[in-house]
Protein: F-box protein At3g26010-like beta-propeller domain-containing protein
Amino acid sequence: MDTSFAFLPNHQQFDLLDSCYGLLLCRLYNVSAEVGKCHYVVCNPATEKWVLLPDSGQDSVNACLGFNPALSSHFHVFELVEEQDNYISGVAVYSSETGVWVYKENRWNKRVMLIELQPSFVFLNGYLHFQVDGHDFSRYLAVVDTDGETWMNFSVPGGLLNGFIQHSQGRLHYANFQRDEHGGVFRLVVYVLENYQSKEWTLKHSVETSYILGRTDYCIDGFDWIAIHPECNLIFFTIGQELKLMCYNMDRRQLKVICNLEGVTPPYLSYVPLYAELEALHI
Structure:
């Protein structure tokens, strides 16, 4: 696989924005266009096929990809459109099936904004999921579908802050650190969303940070969530000034060092090659 992405059209710079089931969403800066002019490109590095998306007409810096080859050969791109005060005013959605963008105004029952830290987006069951701050200073999970018709928001487990969401084994997972009820012990906890109707989270895993990290808190240089394995009970994160990539096995309660990522800058995107040919992509 060509990791230089030389198969993309002529450019000086591009940003990797998101990864979803073997497809990548990039922001491409055209060398011949005016300064700051850019376009979205969805590509498959395994087949070197790509498609340039039309302009959405929105001024947005937050975009993410929705795709599941088990359900459809078509993909969606979501743009979160923000007001001047950073609250989300609506969502623009591009469909590779129709080839057009559709904008829908915010239909959540509250005003929300993206969290200040590096946001994580999860596409699962036809919905885009991401964490937001409400105007009441509470943390929520915002959900919107590909048609912009279904909008939901509900609380994260235990009102925790700065957690991490991923899909694994067909369900939405939420990982974070939590102090126990006596206030003396920090634990790494993993919750699973059982269904959207009850909006209830079930605790899947809990382990003391002293057991896996060797200390009673989690304020460690270089700590950053990377991924939860889509099929196994594995959590990946970085730790330390050398940015060691670690893998924690929830079943065995074992921690393993994979490699050092020193010199590599986020965002870190998990990627599994997709070798299927998609009509939605072309050279």
Remarks:
- The longest strand covers residues 186-195.
- The helical segments are 209-212.
- The mean pLDDT is 87.
- The two ends are 16 Å apart (CA to CA).
